[in-house]
Amino acid sequence: MPLRLYAAFIYVFLYAPIALIVFFSFNAGRYAMDWQGFSLEWYGKAFTNPIIVKALVTSITIASCTSIIATTVGTLCALGLERMRGWLRQLFDALIYIAIMVPGVVIGISTLIAFVTVFDAVNPTLEAIGMVRLQMGLWTVIAAHVLFNLAVVVLIIRARLAGMDRSLVEASEDLYATPFATFRQVVLPALMPSILAGLLLSFTFSFEDFIIAFFVAGPNTTLPIYVFSSIRRGVTPEINAIGTAVLLTSLTLLMLAQFLLRARTRSR
Predict the structure, then answer these.
(1) What pLDDT, on a 0 to 100 scale, did the predictor assign at position 70?
(2) What is the tens place of the pLDDT at every residue in 188-232?
(3) Residue 108 contacts by C-beta under 8 Å, 6 or more apart in sequence?
């Protein structure tokens, strides 16, 4: 019995703040924690606010580009690493795991320093030949997000490759299929659930990231950065509505990714 109470306390501690945000996002009052009745007013205000809409579009643009690039490059990396043997493969494996373990604040600072160093070296030459100076923007956030999402995609694809039936590939080769035909007709369909799961997870991680984007976004504002800037003036039902919408979007994408990964497991 004490263990059950302890477990219940832990769950309440974890999820009660989230439940409060969702609950008060439907508050009709002007203050975040003063319940005045049920209303969807703040959802309407949040998503008709041009600043919030612009930040939302920026976040979706960054997350879409990040997920496509990370998934494409990560799939190619996983296929290449699968054929690699010896110490070189162990080295790349270690680098992939390190990329996942590195804290976001370290990635943010290191990419900021790297970009500033490159800009200082390249911009004088670009100015001399009349070209536009490089500066922080959407592409710097995308590059930084690809850095850590790439490792996630590689691990998901490699887990699928490790469990894939190699006899299908060997049968295709015995039937004189070209390497590209084997990849297109055998390997790619088998990997597709993992590829889609990696795409959804990298989109989710990029969309909700605040720490890395805060360092390298320059003058651009993503939705998490807008929320952080707003709560410094106080939490409002509008912020609760945004948080609830982001929470539901992230949960939907994560559940879809989990469904695809479980479908992959059942198909083995």
Answers:
(1) 93
(2) 888 888 888 889 889 988 988 888 988 888 888 888 888 888 877
(3) 144, 211, 212, 214, 215, 216
pLDDT digits (tens, 9 = 90+) for 157-183: 888 888 777 787 778 877 878 888 888
Please give the C-alpha separations between residue 54 and each of 48, 58, 117, 238, in angstroms, as whole numbers. Answer: 10, 6, 30, 16
Output the 3-class SS for 136-174.
CCHHHHHHHHHHHHHHHHHHHHHHHHHHCCHHHHHHHHH
CA dist 89 and 156 (Å) reads: 17
Distances (CA, A) of 106 to 70, 148, 185: 20, 11, 41
Do residues 81 and 92 touch, judged by C-beta distance below 8 A?
yes
> Whole-angstrom Cα distance, residue 157 to residue 77?
9
Which of 249, 153, 133, 155 minimizes the C-alpha distance to 202?
Answer: 153
Quickly state the pLDDT bin for 107 (edges 50, 70, 90): confident
Q: Is 130 left (phi over 0), alpha (psi -120 to 50) or beta?
A: left
- The neighbour count for residue 165, using CB atoms within 10 Å, is 11
